[in-house]
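Reviewers of the previous submission asked for a worked example of the structure-prediction workflow described in the proposal, so we include one complete record here. The input consisted solely of the amino acid sequence. No template or homolog information was supplied to the procedure at any stage.
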Amino acid sequence: MAFLTNPPPAGIYIHIPFCAQKCLYCDFYSITDLCLQDAFIEGLFREIAATKNQLTFDSLYIGGGTPSLLPHNQIGRIIDRISAQFNLEASAEITLEVNPGTVTLESLKAYRERGVTRLNIGVQSFQNTHLQWLGRMHPADAAKDAILWARAAGFDQIGMDLIYGLPGQSRQAWLADLHQALSFDPEHLSCYMLTCEPDTPLDRMRRHQEFKPMADGDVCDLFETTVMELSGQGYPLYEISNFARKGSNSPDVNRSRHNQKYWTDAPYLGFGPAAHSYLNPVRYRNHRDIAAYLADLYSGTLPIAEKETLSLEQQLMETVFLGLRTLEGISIQRFEEKSGRPFNVLFQDILTDPELKKLITLTPEHCSLTFQGMMVLDSIAGMFVDRI
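From that input alone, the workflow returned the following structure tokens.
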């Protein structure tokens, strides 16, 4: 196996584990006891101080949870600690997740002044009935206010999260959300299909037949609607759930620099409970429990719950699956550098199958999925994985 050439810059993720209340669908680790904020910040700073790394980092993503529940001075302190500890480029993308109802014009101005360059706003829907069903605390008007305040605070990189595939949701209702989002001229949109993650309240409701999930075919129709509508408005899909507005000088300038690391085998460090880190070929994750996380740190131990060295086979499987999620697809050069095997020979039967011609696009540099192929991503990825 050859070593990868020109390794990409690394990213840093900070997990803020606090929420005012848990949403029905969310399986990210969070707690509602806000009294632990000071203890968490102290523990987080201990974890950062105990981590040594010489990589160059060009992105910092502060997610959760609801990071905007923290006072702006705490967000500023986190950014300062990361900058002091690691080689964070001066032009790094620094993203903060915020929820409507937890921000004001003043707090957004403060985040901007403390170094945040990009906001990701958890809108989910602009319709109150959908927000209530999802268990969101904010009304639709609060989302609109947050977006307008973000612009007024000076942010020129604003992304929004939206959810589709709700029970009984019509194409017209989903288009209404998309059109409302587009009216604010955001740089980025993440459109996620509603999924019933195990052990979430939504999954328990499904098992108790408290609602009827949308049929797969109808969800695919909404995905097609999303891609066609947004691409027609200048927001091409670049990953199966992510769309970025075309820039005048660079078509990919508005993509999330940080999130692309997860799909392109770039290294990243994660801090906070339940955060993951990846330094090829090692992946590790922290305790998914703030008490265990803090107990380790206060005793002078890094809060690692699980550590795994990926085999070559596992690395190649991830390269295939994650690559096929993106517009560019699998980098054939990267795959061959990792595997030491010719891509076109290894997957010859797939690449020459006439029934798959409309689903797969092959160039000398990349293997990617067409729009139709992305609708059956798991099936096609499984074909590739079976041949590794």
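The chain has two domains: 10-263, 312-386. We consider this example representative of the routine output the project will generate in years two and three.
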